[in-house]
Amino acid sequence: MTTTTGMPIPEADSIEIPAPTIRHQRLIVTLYGLYSREPGNALPVAALIALLGDLGYDAPGVRSAIHRLKAKNVLRSTRVGGVAAYELSESAQTIFAEGDRRIFSERRDDPTREWLMALFSVPETQRHLRHKLRSLLTSLGFGTVSSGVWIASSSVYDRTQELLAESELSEFVEFFCGDYLFTGDVRAKVAEWWDLDTIDGLMAEFLAEYGDADGTWARLLGDDPAQALRSSTPGMCRAAFRYYIPMLTLWRRLPYRDPNLPLEYLPEGWKEPEARRTFARTHQLIAPLAARHTHRVIAEHRP
Question: How many beta carbons lie within 10 A of that of residue 174, not counting itself?
């Protein structure tokens, strides 16, 4: 078989698919974020088991992960045509909608040069809220200046306010925005406020698994996503699915760890831009193939 340009279609088994160790729950969340986000668009349990089976995971582990996600209020049970199914909770739907811009953008945000300072104080009688507050600020890219004093680009202010309000934590936080009046090496200060070595290490781990992903798939399919989809076989779509879902699952948390500061504030050789470009270009090429495989499997398991 050949493509419309006369070139032979590559065989699916010609692709070396990385196999990073990823927990069932994270892969299931990725599947819902991509293919079953809208209210009422539930996935039959059998479809989830089949899709995770394509990724090398067994049915008992998938069922156990589904129950854990239900207990965490990420999924809720329902029925589709009389068969067991699960759909996203409303809170999870909100999180996915906010995350698209950060996860799928090919470019870093263009952060302002103003700094946002968040000062929080939680009474001792409510100390259990401190961890929740720290986790929220960390997920938004804040660094730590000192206990109770956190810093970020002012570009995250609006979203920070929204999440604090949703979490009923607004009363504990005060914000200040402005310039940092410091004549020394700002890079050294940034390295104190953020654990840059750990963040850069995570980017390096991603690149170690998927550093040539865009080149690998472009050599196989060309660089035109529409043409790649038209020429794809079921086997190639399944291979794309097996490649793409773990890759996205590893990537989707990384943009939340990055402080998203101007590159001149970050160490030489900061790996986030390379990792983002690699993911974005691979996503453009193979996400449609992976989606075709997914929708075929879901259709086979709908009553």
Answer: 10
Predicted confidence at residue 4, as pLDDT, reads 40
Cα angle for residues 139, 240, 32 (degrees, 5° grid):
45
Give strand ranges (E) for the chain.
Answer: 43-44, 75-80, 83-88, 115-120, 143-146, 149-153, 173-178
- 3-state DSSP helix/strand/coil % of the chain, to nearest 5: 60, 10, 30
Give, rounded to a whole angstrom, the gap between the first and last alpha carbons of the chain.
33
Angle, alpha carbons 175-178-180 (nearest 5°): 115
Question: C-alpha distances in angstroms, 233 versus 96, 111, 211, 289?
Answer: 30, 42, 25, 9
pLDDT (0 to 100) of residue 11: 62
| Element housing 299 (H / E) | helix 272-301
- Alpha carbons 112 and 110: distance in angstroms, whole number: 7
Choose among 285, 235, 203, 260: nearest CA to 1: 235
Phi/psi-derived region of residue 56, left when phi > 0, alpha when psi is between -120 and 50, beta in every other case: left
pLDDT at site 119: 96
**Chain centre to alpha carbon of residue 84:** 27
Q: Report, as ranges of residue numbers, the positions in the chain whose pLDDT lies below 50.
A: 1-8
Element (H, E) at 94: helix 90-104
